[in-house]
Specification:
The protein is an alpha+beta fold. The protein has 5 helices and 8 strands. The protein has helices at 2-9, 19-27, 81-86, 107-113, 120-136; strands at residues 32-34, 39-41, 49-55, 58-61, 69-73, 78-79, 93-96, 100-106. The longest helix is centred in the last third of the chain and has 17 residues, at 120-136.
C-alpha cells in the first residue's frame, strides 16, 4: 500500500494532500492492469470512478475508440472526473495506448473528498465540468 501512496502523492490530483488522506484513497481500491487497445472509458458505459494513470499511457478519442487520437495522457494524469462529478456518461473514449496501470477512485470517495453535493466546492466543480463538456461537444 505504501507504493500506491507514493504514486498517488506524485500526481497533480493529490498535490499537497495529507498522507492520511492518501492512505485512505489507497485503501479504497486496487490498481487495474490494462492491455494496449483496451477501452477504459466509453460514452456507452456509465462511469463511477476517477482513474489515476500510474504507468503506461492513455489516449483520448472522440466518436469511436479507433478514431484519431485527440490527446495522449501520461503518468500522473487522471480521467473520469467530468463524468463522476456531473453524473453523465463519459464524453470520449479513453483507451490504453500501451499496457498501462490505473488506480480507480470510487465516486463515493471522490464526493466525500470534494465536500460532496450541496457544497460550494462540489457545485463549482459541477459548473466547470459542465462548461468543459459543452466545449468538448
Amino acid at each position: 500500500m505504501q507504493e500506491i501512496v507514493r504514486e498517488l502523492s506524485q500526481s497533480e490530483l493529490f498535490r499537497g494532500v495529507p498522507e492520511t488522506v492518501l492512505q485512505r484513497v489507497a485503501e479504497a481500491g486496487q490498481p487495474l492492469e490494462l492491455r494496449a487497445g483496451e477501452v477504459l472509458l466509453s460514452p456507452e458505459r456509465p462511469n463511477h470512478h476517477v482513474y489515476l494513470l500510474l504507468s503506461g499511457a492513455l489516449a483520448v478519442h472522440f466518436g469511436a475508440p479507433d478514431s484519431p487520437e485527440i490527446r495522449e495522457l501520461s503518468v500522473g494524469f487522471s480521467v473520469g472526473e467530468i463524468s463522476v462529478i456531473n453524473g453523465n456518461p463519459p464524453s470520449a473514449y479513453v483507451v490504453a495506448k500501451r499496457d498501462s496501470r490505473v488506480f480507480p477512485i470510487p465516486f463515493e470517495l471522490v464526493n466525500e473528498l470534494t465536500g460532496g453535493p450541496g457544497t460550494i466546492a462540489h457545485n463549482m466543480l459541477r459548473i466547470l465540468t459542465g462548461w468543459i463538456r459543452t466545449n468538448t461537444e
